[in-house]
Write a structure and sequence with these properties.
Length: 293
C-alpha cells in the first residue's frame, strides 16, 4: 500500500491505494482522484497549481532493442529520479505507458518550468546502469525526457492536463530532451459554441452551472454531439457518474469546462445545452488529434 503524502506547503494528497508496481508511483486513477480536489483547494485559497507532463524519449527503442525488462528498468529509473526530486513539494503519478505526471501546488509557471528543467537535467546526467547478467559489465544506457508545463489559473483547471500535454507535444516537436511552458495562442475563433450533451443518468445539475465534462464518448459519429459519462460542478461539490455499455466508436478521454444553458430530463437521461469557448474547444480537439483519437 502507498500514500501520496504531503507537498506544496502542507497540501495533502489523499490517495492511499496501491502504487504502480513498475514505477512505484500512484497510478492514473490516483491522479483522477487528487486533481479535482487540489483544483478546488487552490481555487478557494487563490493559489496556483502547476502540472508537468513527462515523456521518456524514444522509449520504444529500449523495449525493441533490449527487451521489456530493460524498458521497465528505464521506466523505474526515471520514475525514481522524479519521485525523489519532487518529494515534499508535490506528487508524481504514472499517467500511462511511459508518461509521468507531476502536480506542484502553490507553484508559479516559471517555478514549474525551472523544476521541469531540473528534472530533465537529472535524468539526462544520470544514465541507467543495467544489472550485470554475467560476463562483461553492461554499458550505461543514456535516457532523456521531454516535459510539458502548464499552470492554473493561467489556464482553466479543466484544461490543465490538456495544455500540459500540448506543451509536451511542442517539446517533442522541437527536438526532445527539453521542457516547454504552455503559452496560450489566440486562434481568432473566440466566443461561445453550443454543444448538445447527453448524460445517460439523472442529474442534479441545473441551468447556469459551470460544469466539467469528462470521459466523453463519440455519439452518432460526431464530436459535437457528445455523450458524457462523468460531469461535475466544482463550485457546488457535485460529481456524477453514469454506468452502462460503451457506445460504438468510443471512448474518447477528454475534459472541458463550460456553462449549462439548457437542461431537459427524459427518462433516465439528462440532456444539456452546453456553452464552451471556441478557443478552448479548438484546443481540446487538437489534444484528441495528438492522441490519435
Amino acid at each position: 500500500m502507498g500514500g501520496s503524502g504531503e507537498g506544496g506547503g502542507g497540501i495533502r494528497f489523499p490517495w492511499r491505494g496501491e502504487l504502480d508496481p513498475v514505477t512505484k508511483l500512484p497510478p492514473r486513477k490516483a491522479l483522477d482522484n487528487d486533481l479535482p480536489a487540489l483544483l478546488h483547494t487552490m481555487g478557494e485559497e487563490g493559489l496556483r497549481l502547476s502540472a508537468l507532463m513527462i515523456d521518456i524519449d524514444h522509449f520504444k527503442k529500449f523495449n525493441d532493442r533490449w527487451g521489456h525488462e530493460t524498458g521497465d528498468a528505464v521506466l523505474g529509473h526515471v520514475s525514481g529520479i522524479i519521485r525523489r526530486s519532487v518529494k515534499y513539494r508535490g506528487e508524481a503519478y504514472r499517467y500511462g505507458g511511459e508518461e509521468i505526471t507531476v502536480l506542484l501546488p502553490n507553484t508559479t509557471p516559471r517555478e514549474a518550468l525551472a523544476t521541469a528543467e531540473t528534472l530533465r537535467e537529472l535524468v539526462y546526467r544520470n544514465p541507467l546502469v543495467p544489472r550485470s547478467t554475467g560476463g562483461e559489465d553492461p554499458l550505461p544506457l543514456a535516457v532523456s525526457v521531454s516535459i510539458g508545463v502548464s499552470s492554473f489559473p493561467e489556464v482553466d483547471g479543466s484544461m490543465l492536463m490538456v495544455t500540459a500535454d500540448q506543451a509536451l507535444y511542442s517539446a517533442k516537436k522541437e527536438g526532445r530532451n527539453r521542457a516547454v511552458l504552455y503559452e496560450r495562442k489566440e486562434t481568432g475563433h473566440g466566443g461561445p459554441v453550443t454543444l448538445d450533451v447527453r448524460f445517460p443518468a439523472p442529474s442534479s445539475i441545473g441551468e447556469g452551472s459551470f460544469i466539467i465534462l469528462a470521459r466523453w464518448f463519440r455519439h452518432r459519429g460526431e464530436l459535437t454531439e457528445i455523450e458524457a459519462r462523468e460531469i461535475s460542478d466544482p463550485g457546488r461539490g457535485i460529481r456524477e457518474f453514469a454506468e452502462g455499455p460503451v457506445p460504438p466508436g468510443g471512448p474518447v478521454t477528454a475534459e472541458v469546462r463550460g456553462r449549462v444553458c439548457g437542461v431537459e430530463r427524459r427518462g433516465n437521461s439528462t440532456f444539456f445545452s452546453f456553452e464552451v469557448e471556441a478557443d478552448v474547444l479548438d484546443l481540446m480537439f487538437h489534444h484528441l488529434e495528438l492522441r490519435g483519437l
